[in-house]
Amino acid sequence: MRLILDTHAFLWWIVDGPQLSSRVRDVVKNPANELFLSVASAWEIAIKVNLGRLRLPDRPDRFIPGQLMKNAIEPLPVEMSHALYVSRLPAIHRDPFDRIIIAQSILEKMPVVTRDTDIAKYKIKTLW
Asked: Rounded CA gap, 74 and 38, in Å?
């Protein structure tokens, strides 16, 4: 199964955070599943680091690619179709990064690993 990790799921996975459910741990650990991190999540992390709202052990431009490689997670580019599809989404969730991830989930037919209940209100498959 191909899965998109929401930003918080990615961050909790790489630090083995206790916030992750046992189901998520099992799914993410399963080598049969392909894991993806949206470029929108990388952008969100970089912005939060720059604003002082998130701390990483290294600069985002070094840390994130290293974690992707270490954890066999592929980057999911933001395509024009993803960006434009956001205009078709109902205004349930206002976070622009999450709205891109929702559009990617719909267009790429990929479930999202997320604890965000607002994302789960869209007609997409979520796992937690």
From this structure: 9
Q: What is the pLDDT of residue 101?
A: 99
Residues pairing with 127 in the sheet: 113
Q: How far is CA 96 from CA 67, 74, 99, 110, 115, in A?
A: 24, 21, 5, 19, 17
* CA proximity to 14, closest of 74, 78, 63: 63
CATH class of 2-127: alpha beta
Q: According to the 3-state scheme, what is the secondary structure of the chain? A: CEEEECHHHHHHHHCCCCCCCHHHHHHHHCCCCEEEEEHHHHHHHHHHHHCCCCCCCCCHHHHHHHHHHHCCEEEECCCHHHHHHHHHCCCCCCCHHHHHHHHHHHHHCCCEECCCCCHHHCCCCEEC
User: For residues 107 and 1, is the Cβ–Cβ distance under 8 A?
Assistant: no
Amino acid present at 24:
V
Confidence at residue 113, expressed as pLDDT on a 0 to 100 scale? 98
Low-confidence ranges of the chain (pLDDT < 70): none
- pTM beyond 0.85: the answer is yes
Domain boundaries, the chain: 2-127
